[in-house]
Amino acid sequence: MADFNSLFYLFLLFSFSIFTSGSEAEAKDAPFVGINIGTDVSNLLSPEELITFLQSQKISHIRLFDSNADILKALSHTKIRVIISVPNNQLIAIGSSNTTAATWIQRNVVAFYPQTLITSISVGDEVFTTNPSSAPILLPAIESLYNSLVASNLHNDIKISTPHAASIILDTFPPSQAFFNQTLTPFLLPLLQFLSRTKAPLMMNFYPYYVFMQNKGVVPLDNSLFRPLTPSKEMVDPNTLLHYSNVLDAMIDAAYFSMKNLNVSDVVVLVTESGWPSIGDSKEPYATIDNADTYNSNLIKHVFDRSGTPLHPELTSSVYIYELFNEDLRANPVSEANWGLFYGNSTPVYLLHVSGTGTFLGNDTTNQTYCVVMDDVDSKTLQAALDWACGPGRANCSEIQPGENCYQPNDVKHHASYAFDSYYQKQDRASGSCDFKGVAMITTTDPSQGSCIFPGR
């Protein structure tokens, strides 16, 4: 496996030690960026390889969609903090039986904690919208698990909540007019009261990408991507006169206003999922590498700025990016398989641009990156990409001509890799310059061989 130490994901070193100016308690409460890890990936790294990879990238907060025992064991004695999850198909059993809940806690929490730093349990996923028949059993399941934590004296260390889809909030803009779907109030109000009582967060999955796609022509792309705006382009809440420069802040404040409408004001919002797809089909033209890079880079900067939201400037929500790997086993649409920051082989899909943010660098030039051909690419498509690179792309292709240093091996894949890397380096490794209609990828492994020296060296 390639070593990515000091590579661009240094930005995810959200360990508590970076906040040296405050007390330990202050550092513990500092906002962070974590990352979701889905496993619908062909040739997924082994648990040991996965943890080594996370450590090499300085990723210190992760969320699992289950409670994989092998991964939890591999996390032991690391500083990586993890949210584990109860899948929707286990809710009825846990909510119907205190014994089942106690067994789940013993098997998935007590067996690993504190060697493995489990911080939270997310119970179900978007239950009210994707599995509404389980809504009545959701809070009983949460309370049974919580009682089992109390019995093990872990309830102060490990929080329990449940992630919600953004669609449970209606009339989200202006945020001051937002409210929860009233048909959910019988379930949602006691849940919020539980979160308030146990000091657990309201987990929300917020995707400005979908807000933009569903409201094209109303919600500008720049607002969705956190791009800098002139004051005239900011969204203004006419009731509060608060100015919103990005969609995510508006979504978070809509959640706060919605809770306030139910007389709950002491529960914080944790964004358990947010991201942007890098590839989509013809119906999703804004799912591009450039937009994904822009969104996630600016999202990270936004959390690091610790500027909060217009309604709560004193309170910055932590965010888990969706997701670590492209889950190539996901079904259509195409975008479903392309939310990852990395390919399954652990090479980056794109380089995030977060240089100068805190103590982190977005593109560490001490580690060179190269642009090469992906595996299993159709030769006809590859030849067309090579022709473009050496033609309109104006890559330096002289070294792959007959008799020159990089002519051998004489095959389209080798020649295309050289041409792609030439173009990529000439573009100063800019976001989106290593794509070539999806046939190229970025790597930190030097592809040079013998006298054939690639441009990136």
UniProtKB/TrEMBL annotation:
Q: Which InterPro entries match?
A: GH, Glyco_hydro_17, Glyco_hydro_17_plant, X8
In what residue span(s) does the X8 domain sit? 369-454
Q: Which species does the entry assign this protein to?
A: Papaver somniferum
Q: Which SMART domains match?
A: X8 (SM00768)
| Transmembrane regions | none
Highest taxon of the source? Eukaryota
Provide the catalytic activity annotation. Hydrolysis of (1->3)-beta-D-glucosidic linkages in (1->3)-beta-D-glucans
> Keywords, A to Z?
Cell membrane, Disulfide bond, Glycoprotein, Glycosidase, GPI-anchor, Hydrolase, Lipoprotein, Membrane, Plant defense, Signal
Instruction: Report the protein name in the record.
Output: glucan endo-1,3-beta-D-glucosidase
The record gives the membrane topology as:
Lipid-anchor; GPI-anchor
Give the Enzyme Commission number.
3.2.1.39
Q: Does the keyword Lipid metabolism apply?
A: no
Q: What class of enzyme is it?
A: hydrolase
Which Pfam family, giving just one, matches this sequence?
X8
Q: Where is the signal peptide?
A: 1-25
